[in-house]
Amino acid sequence: MDEDFFQKSELYQDLYYVTKGREKCAPNHSYGPNIREYYLIHIILEGKGYCETETSKFNLSKGQFFVIFPDEQTFYQADEENPWEYIWFGFDGRVAEAILSSMGINRQTPIGSIKNFNESKELVENMVGMQPFEHENRIQLQGMLYWLISLLDSKTRDNNIKPIEKINRRIVYTHDAIDLIKQNYQNVDFLIGDISEQLSLNESYLTSIFRQVTGRTLHEYLIDYRIQKSREYLETTDFNVREVAEKVGYKNPLSFTRVFKRKIGMTPTEYKKTTKKR
Description:
Structural class: alpha+beta
Shape: globular
Largest sheet: 7 strands, antiparallel
Number of domains: 2
Number of strands: 12
CATH topology of the largest domain: Jelly Rolls
Helix content: 40-55%
CATH architecture of the largest domain: Sandwich
Radius of gyration: 20 Å
């Protein structure tokens, strides 16, 4: 698997590139169930497989795509006999969902075909091979991201869609728990037990289903979200470490620093210095 990942920048907020990569899958290779925090377009270069969202199952093949929306559970698997090879592009931004919607791509039908696939394939492959850490390439990737979305054709969907009739309550509860974390992460007194109490659910049960859906415990998700938000503060504000710690729910800046270094590999101070150099 070949992948790169680029940090969020204050220069790009409406629509910005996050990651890209390529993988030639083994038979029955799968990913999920999992929930992403940003958008992912998968473009199938060869082979076939299927993607499951919370409501539908889509059988997809060469020349088609599927979009993973943030905060929604997805699962996808390569075919046993003819496993797919795909390229993915991750992105986010304030207008990301609106732009996809303008192309007919939404959470109910996140699939379609790539326009003029034979001609577009080479350009897509060149795009995934670009070095994103060079400033000029980053600018190009920003522009090419719009170009990539313009290639998404929702009108030529595969008709083999199998709706799931019963709503999966595990997904609903997981989304509700994530919403509560996002609403309360700044509160230093916010505890995992508060989530189950507000949802009127047994804490052990909620912890179990949350891990099944996301692959993380509630505690891990809360920590990860706090660190994600702290990175944004460090990148885009002049707050010192103590102020950032308070902004993301830590009473003790030393505790925050320890957790940050364990997750990111450097202290908040070191991280802030690296972002100021870009």
